[in-house]
Write a structure and sequence with these properties.
By secondary structure, this protein is an alpha/beta fold. It folds into 2 domains: about 290 residues, 3-Layer(aba) Sandwich (Aminopeptidase), CATH 3.40.630.10; about 100 residues, Alpha-Beta Plaits. Helices cover about 35% and strands about 20% of the residues. It has 15 helices and 20 strands. Helix 2 runs antiparallel to helix 4, helix 4 packs across helix 15 and helix 9 crosses helix 10. The N terminus is likely disordered.
């Protein structure tokens, strides 16, 4: 059994635990029936075709209420299926799968968000809110982030219920609103207002981690142990404007673009932590040639900065090495024939653990070096503030053998030989709210994606058919294993 130890030893110990677990004899996984898989696919399709964006057209409650109906129709007690929230359009669903008798351990909680990022039909090859099967993929907004896991876990609990499974501890599934942004973040609201519904020994969050593929070859199975801090900043240039026939160099758009050009050319300092060191050590064992050599070189003391620069040319590696900030939205001017009085950009930052949003805001001010610009913080709800919070990233939780042993064993049964390793999530997730409440969080989606085909938040989001089937197999066996502890 792996035991809790001091923070500086946590991740080497996880690697030892994982190696030991993966050396165990493989046991064939239970196979779903054709009816089970048909139901799981129908749930996936239903969720993709419900628009759950934070827009006038979107409605999370339509999706959570549809899943509530499925659980109630299946015979779950109404007292165990809670549709709750702070806004009628942003209701969260919390389902409790009861243990047999009185459990002596706290529940295991699966945390999934139901909202998705906006997608424009004019940008996509297919309709983003239609579930399209094409060329071996399922297309639709949310197929990667994260309605595939929502559907897989709904299907898993329904299947376990049909089979009469009786766990030793309660299993909880929370389907929440506004993880992608909005005024009614469901995870935060549940922790603050209905802790009794979501209190757990630990959280499994499929909004992170997963299996990375290189041309179909499993390279690594990543489990989130910590994550970056998400922050938006509003950069504003103002000017007295005037007639467009009398252009001036102090044009607000030019001032803003000069600042953004500095940002585009800038790289935040190279950094590593215990999580990323273990990740690149394990990844180096699967890579070859210069890439493998460079990964080992950055682990040296001091790190080889030329190797770091070569690896940084790959955006996925670069985001593991530093804070990243990028302009994502622009707005300027008030008339075609007038000099702009205001030009504004949103800069989205993913902040390396150990730094706060306010620290990064101050760095942006220093980088732009223009007193005529303002740099303000934008909250997840869209409110604008002169200063940013001082909160920092999730502290990595201690290893938990109840989680890692079955996770590793089942992963190895589906993707033989792939190493399981802790990683730093380069985005951000709702795990932060549970971690702040003292509940350990582990991020793992059991979804296998090509390293160069991550389309979450992007055009033509898609998921390989095979990947969804394997995630169903994983979550069914994983839920049973957690319930049997």
């Amino acid at each position: 059994m792996c035991k809790s130890v001091t923070a500086r030893r946590i991740f080497p110990l996880i690697a030892v635990c994982i190696t030991a677990a993966s050396s165990a004899a493989q046991v064939p996984l239970p196979q779903a029936s054709a009816a089970d898989r048909a139901e799981a696919l129908a749930i996936f399709k239903q969720l993709i075709e419900i628009n759950t964006t934070d827009t006038p057209e979107g409605n999370v409650t339509t999706a959570t209420a549809a899943m509530q109906k499925r659980f109630l129709d299946a015979g779950f007690p109404a007292d165990d299926v809670h549709l709750v929230g702070a806004n009628p359009r942003k209701m969260n669903l919390v389902v409790r799968f009861r243990a047999a008798g009185t459990p002596d351990q706290k529940p295991a909680l699966f945390l999934c968000h139901m909202d998705v990022v906006q997608a424009l039909r004019s940008d996509w090859t297919t309709d983003p809110f239609q579930f399209v099967l094409k060329d071996g993929y399922y297309y639709g907004r949310g197929t990667q982030d994260m309605k595939e896991s929502d559907a897989a876990l709904v299907a898993t609990l329904l299947r376990l219920h049909r089979e009469g499974y009786k766990p030793k501890r309660d299993l909880i599934l929370a389907l929440t609103a506004d993880e992608e942004g909005g005024h009614f973040n469901g995870a935060s609201w549940l922790v603050a207002n209905h802790r009794e519904l979501v209190d757990a020994a630990y959280v499994i969050n499929p909004d992170a981690g997963g299996v990375e593929l290189d041309h179909g070859r499993p390279v690594i199975a990543a489990v989130e142990a910590t994550e970056k801090v998400y922050s938006d900043f509003q950069i504003t240039a103002t000017n007295r404007g005037g007639h467009s026939s009398l252009p001036r160099p102090d044009n607000a758009i030019y001032e803003l673009m000069a600042a953004l050009s500095k940002l585009a050319a800038y790289s935040f300092p190279f950094e590593m932590n215990d999580v990323t060191r273990v990740y690149f050590k394990n990844l180096a064992a699967r890579e070859q040639g210069e890439t493998a050599a460079d990964m080992l070189a950055i682990l040296a003391q001091p790190p080889d900065m030329e190797a770091a620069a070569r690896l940084s040319e790959d955006p996925s590696y670069n985001s593991n090495f530093r804070t990243t900030c990028v302009a994502t939205r622009l707005a300027a001017g008030h008339a075609n024939n007038a000099l702009p009085q205001t030009a504004q950009a949103i800069v989205n930052c993913r902040i390396f653990p150990g730094h706060s949003p306010e620290e990064i805001r101050q760095q942006l001010i220093q980088l732009f070096a223009d007193s005529k610009l303002t740099v303000k913080y934008v909250s997840d709800a869209g409110d604008v503030f002169d200063t940013a919070p001082d909160r920092k990233a999730i502290v990595p939780p201690p290893p938990n053998a109840q989680v890692f042993e079955p996770l590793t064993r089942i992963t190895d049964a589906i993707w033989p030989g792939v190493p399981v390793t802790p990683v730093m999530e380069n985005g951000a997730s709702d795990s932060i709210y549970f971690a702040q409440a003292g509940i350990p969080c582990y991020g793992y989606s059991a979804v296998a994606l090509e390293q160069d085909d991550v389309r979450a938040h992007g055009k033509d989001e898609r998921l390989p058919i095979d990947s969804y089937g394997k995630s169903l197999d994983f979550f069914y066996s994983f839920a049973r294993a957690l319930g049997n502890e």
